[in-house]
Amino acid sequence: MRIVVEKRDNKSKSAAVLIPLASFAISLILGAFVLLASRSNPLQAYSAMLDGAFGNARRFQYTIVESIPLLMCGLGVGVAFRLKFWNIGAEGQYVWGAIGITWVMQFWKFLPVPMLLPIGLVVGMTLGAVWAGVPGFLKAQWSVDETLTTLMLNYVAIGLAEYLYISAWKAPLGNMGTPEFPREAWLPPVWGKIHSGLYIALAFVVLLWFLLYKTRWGFELNMIGKNPRAARYQGVSIKRNIVLAMLLSGAICGLAGSMNTAAIAHRLTKGVDGGYGFTGIIIAWMAGLNPFASILVAIVMAALTTGADALQIAMKLPESMGEVLQGLVLIPLLAGSIFVEHKLKVIKKEAV
Amino acid sequence: MDFITKLLAATIAMGTSLTYATLGEIYTEKTGILNLGMEGTMLMGALAGFATAMATANLYLALIVAMLIGGLLSTIHAFLCVTMRANQVVSGLAITMFGTGLANFLGQRLGPASNNYNLVGMNLPSKFDNIAIPFLKDIPILGAFFDVSVLTYALYFIIPFSWYYMYKTKYGLAIRAVGESPKTATAMGLSVPRLRYLYTIIGGMFAGLGGACLSLSFTPSWNDGMTGGKGWIVIALVIFATWNPGKAVIGTLVFGGITSLQFSLQAAGVKMVIPTQFLAFAPYLITFFTLSAMTILNQNRKGSYAAPSALGTSFAIDDK
Prior knowledge:
heterodimer, A: mainly alpha, two-stranded antiparallel sheet, two-stranded antiparallel ribbon, 4 strands, 72% helix, 5% strand, B: mainly alpha, ABC transporter involved in vitamin B12 uptake, BtuC, 11 helices, 2 strands
């Protein structure tokens, strides 16, 4: 008797729902062992995390605020992933967004103050798009490996941002960071800590859903991702679409960066490379590139972070527990991903 | 002269950790598996090595534990990518996330009760010290190569051996066949999954060792996230070395030199013309240009010059 893995005829709907749920449960169990090994009560720790993430209005707001850039980055990279283009440069594109809006706020003095925010967001978006467009063009024109180029460019962007806030654009007074943006140019709040970036992110969810599922272009991207040869026979330009998808992907990640900077830090400073871009990749993948599913996944990932912060305060446990759990969710999920498109088949006895 | 010797010594000390991990990643990528989990694996290696050395005062045992932990983390990656045919990019990021988180978590839990279970701020009973070889160490400039730790001396043998293994033995041929064309490799009678498991695990062991070089020799201590992105430089170094173990050391010396140069110049009180942050991202920018140029210039000779053709793709015998 032996067990073989066989391709399913159709994607399994139930597997697509059950596997993430099971993975989450497994990660909590595995995480419990880590907690037990470090002399802590897992149940107490998990309830502290839950309380820390959603316990009261203020905590809930923090979790939502944390989920906004994650959702945006997840949406952004998701566009490129549609055509199996591995944009892992979201982090760098996010940083360029932050640089862009800071540039406008600090140096475009000729603009009236109310114009600073919208123009800053657009400039951030544009820089993010350019930073993603370069590897997109290199891939389309000469098939330069995009996974490696986008990864390398992240650290160039991060280093440049560091140079800007530590020396070139540094505020004359105070410690690290550029001067604070004018108060009128901050992203306005909508409910407590939650800023209006929430509306922008949700608008992008709907927009991308429409673009990817309801338009000819979305159909083309899907076709390139699934079967590039068929796409070429249909007269779809792969080169043009790779560049376009990367521009859009980078624009969304760039907007995430400029939005978050205008809403939270209000200047370019340490911590601009907060890892949202990397977690965004995971969110896009976990959500199966579906914009609506990304909302839920982004909230769960954000809750693990804000919950872990509370864990440190409530139980004096290192906040890195959040990262441990984020990683642990992924491992069974990755292992289970095969069952969406494959099934196990037991072969009783082989004919001799 | 003195300045150059000191710079070289610093470069070698920093490059040792990078070289181990780079060699490991080359073995892994040569079989077609991209392991982006290096940062997390190195950090776990650094932690495992440090914690073992603290508990047992045995440095060699610490190295072995670091290698085992590195191998263990990569086994997860191999299981996900080979057996479960999961996406290699996402799996690698998951390993980095999990490894980084777990190492930082355990770093605050595995210490002695007297230090509030924290390993941060603890001092090792002993570390890998530099051993000078008489006479050789007095050679101008190059003498720096003969006043290093055991960990570096070992590399003088491991690097040429790795090159020989990869290009002159049947084992190396098998590795390259699996990475270039899994289908052909299967036809040759090789087991693609077995080889991919084997060299992903070996790659992780090297990464664990590279991490331990940091916590047991270069900066003998434990700090949260002490690898500081070295695991990502490793990914760049593999490209810079064009996946050739013999060339791994060149990139390491160049990049390690750039990083050391920042500190040496600062220490020497030289006013910097180039901002330090530019030197910090230079390795990545150079790699970006190198990779792009290599690919563009070799348009017609695909496969032979650089990246293994099957890098990043999963393989199953029934795939069409």
